[in-house]
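Pipeline run #58 for the internal structure catalog. This entry was flagged by the ingest filter as a single-chain record with no existing model, so it goes straight to prediction. Upstream metadata was stripped on purpose; only the residue string is passed forward. Reviewer on rotation: M.T. Logging verbosity set to normal.
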Amino acid sequence: MNQRQLSVFEQNIAEMKAYFSKNLKIPYNTKNVFIEHEPVEKFNKGRSWGFVAFPTIAFAGIKLGDMIDNQKPQLKDSTDYPFIAHEIGHYYFGNVLQPNSTLFWFFLESTAEYLSVKASEEKFGKIFATKYFQDRSKQLKNFKAKPLNTITDMNDISGTYRYSYGPFLLRGLEQIIGEKQMFKFLNTCLMAKTEATDYSFFKRNALKSGISPKQWGTFEKDFILSENAVSLVK
């Protein structure tokens, strides 16, 4: 990237980190190294992919400089913002908290994806999240999800489940308890670093964070156990 592109890119990264730090109440104490790399697998045109091994965030199928608008000091495509924010979010879920049990993929990927939606909603307004969940609901039209409380093998949580369905569950919980309480719940999970990240972990830390048994019961009925969870998210 040239200096102008770098400045715009770093401004967006700082913005994401500030948002996460403020709401999760845990400082983002890592200066990231961003790498462009060539995938071993041949990518179809338009496909991109990112992965994290902190402090490194690596991207394939995209040139970082091409993300920057040549006319305005912003990202060229607004969908790049959540794409990057997802990887930034792994500092918390994947680094601060390292999932280790049956809900490994839920606490690694669904949480990072949910955080990327929240950061983007903060930047672009509620309309972003509304469209995000509307678009994902179409993709999940024929998806049959195994209830999260019946997962016994972490690989029962497929790619579609972890990246698309899981964020619906977290958004559903947010609808019941509110944004402020949701971040308090996520903070409580992040502070429970040595516990097994199974369904008991999910429920125990929800109640520990201040979510009432009645609220949790509503969440389980409407989202965990319901076949209509996707349609209930706004």
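catalog note: The longest helix spans residues 3-24.
catalog note: The two ends are 38 Å apart (CA to CA).
status: ready for reviewer M.T.
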